[in-house]
Design brief:
Layout: E1 4-8, H1 10-19, H2 26-35, E2 40-44, H3 54-63, E3 68-72, H4 76-85, E4 89-92, H5 110-125, E5 129-134, H6 138-147, E6 151-155, H7 157-160, H8 165-184, E7 188-192, H9 200-204, E8 211-214, H10 216-225, H11 227-237
Parallel strand pairs: 1-2, 1-8, 2-3, 3-4, 4-5, 5-6, 6-7, 7-8
Helix pairs in contact: 2-11, 6-8, 10-11
Bound molecules: pyridoxine-5'-phosphate.
Length: about 240
């Protein structure tokens, strides 16, 4: 059975916001992605709303119920938005002001954990599945399970930035072990960040992962190949 593909369409909105224009519309992108191989649409609602806007989340969740995977921080403002629009699932990610993209998995601490536990419980009350974006580290996987997450998304950023095949192999092994532990603890496993048409195969081959969340590589490929081809090619690899 092939892995599921979540296509992150943030950069469709990045392009729109470059001109503050009404297009390209993330809703159109979502429709194309879902009809050409995507199983889910991923959007990251950032505090500064520099690409995806709250109104995009509202429209996407209304038009594509059961298909929207919302990435957001664990702030109360984001929790409120998630509870209001009820996406299929929420992936809680760390968010630093000024960062170009998410820099890594959540950094757990007693204060963060109690906030996360509260947010996870509130999302569950609305039947929203909760994923935590984590580094492929045993202690963090165990914490995610203890906090009540349904899913862990393993951060593949370090793997995608490996500068030698030896380093990539070592990081793949870490991802494999983390995935195995997560499965043992009853968690569904996703993977994402920095995955592209070349480096995704080795991650897909690890087993135990149910969904890959990929954005930048697909959206940039779509500029030259078209969005249907870019999505279809990636789904074909999975
Ligand atoms: N998963 C998470 C948690 C992310 O924050 C991102 C980036 O928004 C992605 C996946 C997609 O990463 P990329 O755009 O590098 O494919």
């Amino acid at each position: 059975m092939s892995l599921k593909l979540g296509v992150n369409i943030d950069h469709i909105a990045t392009l729109r916001q470059a001109r503050r224009a009404p297009y390209p519309d993330p809703l159109d992108a979502a429709a194309v992605c879902l009809s050409t191989g995507a199983d889910f649409i991923v959007v990251h609602l950032r505090k500064d709303q520099r690409h995806i806007q709250e109104k995009d989340v509202a429209r996407l969740c209304k038009v594509f119920p059961g298909k929207i995977h919302l990435e957001c921080s664990y702030s109360e403002q984001m929790e409120k938005a998630a509870l209001k629009y009820k996406p299929h699932s929420v992936c809680i990610v760390p968010e630093e002001p000024g960062e170009v993209t998410t820099t890594g998995g959540l950094k757990f601490s007693p204060k963060t954990n109690s906030r996360l536990m509260k947010m996870i419980a509130n999302l569950h009350k609305k039947h929203i599945l909760v994923s935590l974006f984590v580094s492929p580290v045993a202690a963090d996987i165990r914490t995610a399970a203890k906090l009540g997450a349904d899913i862990v998304e393993l951060c593949t950023r370090d793997y995608s930035e490996a500068t030698s095949s030896k380093q990539a192999q070592k990081l793949l092994q870490e991802l494999a072990l983390a995935g195995l532990l997560a499965n043992e603890l009853g968690l569904e496993v996703h993977a994402g960040h920095g995955l592209d048409y070349h480096n995704v195969l080795a991650v897909a081959d690890l087993g135990g992962i149910s969904c890959m969340n990929i954005g930048f590589a697909i959206i940039t490929r779509s500029l030259f190949a078209g969005l249907p081809t870019a999505v279809n090619e990636m789904k074909g690899l999975l």
